Amino acid sequence: MAATSRTRTPHEAGFPAFSRRDMLRATFAGAVVLGIGGGLAGCTTPAKPGAAAASTDNIKRGGSLRVGVSGGSAKDTLDAHRGGFNPDTARAMQLYDRLMRFTPDFMLEPELAESFEPNSRADEWTVRLRKGVTFHDGAPLTADDVIFTIKRILDPKDPKVGASGISYLDVAKMQKVDDLTIKLPLTVRNVGFAEQFAQYFMGVVPVGYDPAKPVGTGPFKFKSFTPGQQSVFTRNDNYWRDNEPYVDEVVIIDFPDDTARVNALLGGQVDAIANLPQNQIAAVQGNPALAVLNAPTGAWLAFTMRVDAAPFDDVRVRQAMRLLTNRQDVITQALNGQATLGNDLYGRYDAAYASDLAQREQDIDQAKSLLKQAGRSDLQAELVTAPSFQGMVEGAGVLAQNATEAGVDLKIRKVDGGTLYGDNWLKWPLAADYWVSRSYLSQAALSSLPSSPWNETHWNDPTYIKLVQEAQGQPDDDKRTELLQAAQKIEYDQGGYIIPAFTNQTDAYVAKLAGFEKSKTGTALNNFTLRSVGFVA
Fold first, then answer.
1. What distances in angstroms separate CA 94 from CA 121, 174, 225, 487, 515, one per listed residue?
2. What does the CA dihedral 412, 416, 422, 428 come to, rounded to 10 degrees?
3. Which has the closest alpha carbon to 304: 437, 422, 463, 420?
4. Which residues fall within 8 angstroms of residue 207, CB to CB, at 6 or more apart?
5. Crossing angle for the helix pair 392-404 and 315-324, nearest 10 degrees?
6. I need a surface site. Which of 217, 315, 429, 502 has the fewest CB within 10 A?
């Protein structure tokens, strides 16, 4: 995807901006806003997820686990800090661990960190690392490695994917307290800082890390990699989690085509697939040798309207587009019923989610009236979409059909993912997109501020920005909720997103596997947590 570069303006002081190149869109992460209380602490060995089709008590050790993932191209990478597509996510989750992680219930907890605690102002955080963790080459994990990792991500000459999320970290003042403790000072207060280190592109790497010969602390070690085709990883016998991983080898195979991926599962060429097309759920469920992993999530299908480009620079047109959308049609026809009703807001699982705002419903008469007021009764527009995620193409078709009821002519332009997220991404006046589960603040930082790396609607409202900035540094839960709900009301009334639905995450696997668990995060196969998966004896 194309790089983005933004110039910092005075009203963005709470969200420092910087130029980035080689930026790829992150498809994994979530967030829960943290109170200032006691920070985050975890036990030495977190409990393992439960089995989806069979108890993990029956898992035998050994075997090769073959996983088919959607997408893949010559741009695939093993770099811990550069990936942006499904295969990159799948590989990163095998090779690297992060300081923090998200549980299947979308709760933030320590991973390589033993604790991750803020001071009273949330402008300095102390990280204490787990003892006894080693990299694949046998070297111990230390504070030096974490400092090296952060500096690599924030390299001003070559900022990585996660740089935008921690750009306010004062690198010059980072302090190594001892071999397992680091102090991380911030230039602004941020109660949700720790969540940034749970994202899959924030893997901890050793000092001197070479992505051509990748070394991490993850459950599997690198064996081979052919971009756009497949990658192979072998069991890390010295992994810090007791008894994991179960299998000897993981093979990740790229399948850009949905049909080929499903056929590979049906034909026995793979043991699990990510992103089972939702219209194939019934067929797979009817096969006793297979199982479906189907979980409601906070992931959301979106249609993006640029608020600075005609005709969507007129708020009446944006309101009309939202009102002509039949959200239930999108769920039924595009998502096979596997979704929850959306209301043009993201952050479904955030405690501050504005659930009391009136559910927006289709109102063709009001849509026509608004278009007439805007002088756009004969509105024509191009809607760009791609088969990058479930429902993006089908949902665009539903929206176009809804639009005809209001006299609007939407012409669908179907492209491949590389084109949609290529040089013109962030330039399309009207396009389809998809995001995974995040908290409101985390998502806003990525897509709803002038300094956001992926502000696809070009949303730039001064009052909204001020509210979000205040919420970022507000330690009181009630006050932060009040600020965020006020911000959401502005975006609900005037923003550029049409969000018809929160989609289910659907995957499939052979029934002789156990250890998969349903997850709210919106990323395939329980965040590609393959360390806890094995074959049943």
1. 35, 28, 13, 38, 15
2. 10
3. 420
4. 144, 145, 148
5. 100
6. 315
